């Protein structure tokens, strides 16, 4: 039995999902007979952490401020072991611009993109470069905030006339946005677990089949709005390739403990879209579902992630 | 293999709930529980002003009659509370007959029951544009067509209402009633001018329609002259309660937590409403009715309302001052003399829904205008509540909001400039650049 802190809530758009994740994890930890304290992100959070002096922190925060290295760096400073990836890996994954550049450098297939910063729009008239960027990528294309989890601010743009609106919307969520080639195919989410002393392993491939249209925020967190297939119904060879590339991505980005790699399988190519270092743990989240399908109970999953917090993580 | 299908009865749900999607803004609203956020999004009166002592006392009085408080009651409400309602309506210079009064679980239930009684699928309802979102919700279950009539500073524009009626009638659509919130309307804070109240009655008479007068805010006037209710104008004309169905509520003059409102209408309509309510909830809570009775009979409710009004006036003044001080010139807003809300209109190219995440990130929230229209308009508008937040926070909130708006305006400018220069460099002059203005309202 250990004294633990579960960090949840936070200030991102995914605050509510984080509460669901956090409560579920806290509950499991209690059933595992730990002493559990849940903390939101507030002015007093650091003080509380110092007072409680927990043996470890289970970080259940999603999105900027919680999944981007901010909390991780603080926990490191306080000497509190914590779950999941370190500060550098966290920011590298949360910021899709960084993640994709690292992937490109390592030869991992990720859809071509162009990056735009709010600052360049303001100081350098960068909007003039939108059209060339779109021409290079081709339509349809995706416009998304670089550092936002879930699908907030994501648009699919079919034609030049709609580009500005999409850019405008995405900038509502972040000062950095991406234009990305739109790839179509089976959406496969790859949950990865790295138990102590073992190599990271794929828990199972989860195919996401939204009932209507895109897998948006609502579908993601409303039971029944999405169907999953576990394991994904794709050819064995393709499955192998997806697993291999996802594991490779996990290593390249320096992740620790667990993560979820989101991919789209377009004919032969498994495109890597992004990596979530703290994926959701709700009842409709793919990581716990895949674990369950692999015969790992929710408690066992939580325990494995916690155990990994106590061992040194790879630098990053 | 699909291992997860928690909502496996999807295929059994009624069409009317399938159509009801929680709007994207609902998800954003979920983030409002965040510590430190200044929410100008609420629609609440400040119940903290009531106080524990006063509350204990009315509860104490009710305890003497616990057996009745714990019992079912008549569907139309207890007799005593109907007397209270007659007094309350009297305070708004509206004659009411005790027997024409019917208790509902909030005015919200009144809206639902009127919808249930009058609306078949495809029937039309005329209402203000924008209008109370909760009314749109309540009516939606009966699947009517919502016809928004434009408003100006004096409320719904009668000429536009006439035109709308003419054109829907021509299409063979059955119009059932005109829905209006005449005083300090939710969401705009606008009050319907007195001549227009007469004119609406006339229009309803010509077309033989019901007027649904929803008046939760009439008594929350802190400035200017009170105007006669449409119900009172109808009575003045000698007809008694006839085509005006009047909705009142205790939510804003006392407390929304008791969930009590009322319908005042002619007996035939009340009879139908009674049948509707039997199926809905049998009767409203006796306990709530007795609390209200005890309070309105033994305490000075008028001075409580006056106290609330003083609080609200100070907060409205603070908000108007802050708006004038901080907002860019291109933003306009209403100047309500009562109620809880101010309605702000941004330049037509700004999308208040798309802007909300930025605002929330900066710790201020509002309600985007879209939800107050059925079908897309109002994107560049927002509803701001001034009753629930302390004056200092109102100031700060408006300051933050102005920053967000400026930032969005600046971004818009940057995008347009960049795109224009790129286009100019490439196309022969005279060819229009890609349209970058979204539809305004
Ligand atoms: C115009 C309008 N009608 C009806 C209602 C519902 O009030 P009640 O609390 O009585 O159900 C409200 C509540 O905000 C309102 O603004």
Report on the structure:
The complex is a heterodimer of chains A (316) and B (441). Chain A folds into 3 domains: 81 residues, Rossmann fold (3-Layer(aba) Sandwich), CATH 3.40.50; 139 residues, ATP-grasp fold, B domain (D-amino Acid Aminotransferase, Chain A, domain 1); 69 residues, 2-Layer Sandwich (Dna Ligase, domain 1). In chain A, the strands form 3 sheets. In chain A, strands 8, 9, 10, 11, 12 and 13 form a 6-stranded antiparallel β-sheet that branches. In chain A, a hairpin with a 2-residue loop joins strand 12 and strand 13. The longest helix of chain A has 17 residues. Chain A is an alpha+beta fold and 316 residues long. In chain A, 37% of the residues lie in helices and 22% in strands. The mean pLDDT of chain A is 92. Chain B has 441 residues and is of the alpha/beta class. Chain B folds into 2 domains: 155 residues, Aspartate Aminotransferase, domain 1 (Alpha-Beta Complex); 240 residues, Aspartate Aminotransferase, domain 2. Helix content of chain B is 44%, strand content 13%. Chain B contains 15 helices and 14 strands. In chain B, helix 3 crosses helix 12, helix 6 packs across helix 11 and helix 13 runs parallel beside helix 15. Chains A and B meet through helix 6, helix 8, strand 11 and helix 11 of A and helix 2, helix 14 and helix 15 of B. The complex binds pyridoxal-5'-phosphate. The site of pyridoxal-5'-phosphate has 14 residues of chain B, from helix 6.
